[in-house]
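Input.
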Amino acid sequence: MIRSAAARGFLARTLAKPALVPTYAASTSKPLMRLPGGTRFATTYTKMLDKVLGINVHEKTQVLLEDPNARLRVPKQPPTHGIPMCRVAFHSFQLHRMDFFTKWCCKAAFHMKMPCSGVIFMPRKIRRWTVLKSPFVHKSSQEVFERRTYKRVVYIYDSNPEVVQKWLDYIGQNAVAGVGMKYWLNEYEPLDIGERIKRALKTGDTKDVDAVTLKQARHVKRFTVQGRKYGRGRYRGLPMFRQQELEKMAMYVADQLRANPQANIEELTKVALKVNGTPKRPSTHVHPMPSKKKLAIMARRAERAKQKETEKPSE
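Output.
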């Protein structure tokens, strides 16, 4: 039984606050305190900690420190085929903002399961301006200002176009102030996309072709027709070939190049022209369709001529 009040108070404080006890302590052979009457307090500090904590404090535990670069390193999804789907370019005058935003975009791509190239550093652009502090005789007192533009590029590979578009919308909505961004999307179409567009133009069905592609095809078709009308009047002296003749010439040139890849394409084209015969030349007397204004002027002249004939006195 512990008779000293000081010893009882020390034990009470030790048992009440176990969290403040260190994780390890060196063992000591010295007694903790000497009781009155010459008796020694045999329980040492380390044995008391063993009883309170329930562990052996003599064992030094090895603490594995975490690599500080592990949290700063941006995770990457490895590409499967290496097909580029999107290229995003960033530019800013503030380096810390752009570095934060580009790493955040790469992490967003990783969590969306999209292979990303990581942040690619591009050359910085420095532009300087020299202005006068004071004019006239104080021209030597000048001041130089400069502006540094930092650039970064991120590539996205082997991803669904819809997922890439959602990723672009997401980073666009959460863009950082002071960081500019522009992107280029790569779209891949099947080999028979031309036949699908032709069928869609004839029938108007958008099952095989989306509405945007069909609208663009109609736009191109309209300008093609206008270009043909313009070409007939401007380039009427040039030779013209039918589609079948052009296909024969192209097949002939392709066969010759397949047999001899080092052949000259211009010479092969001249030979193909001789083989397929002379082209069809349009007639030199081509009268373009008059405009509405010219038709109105011609109608007025005809009416005036008729009025003059009626006004003449009969002989």
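The two ends are 163 Å apart (CA to CA).
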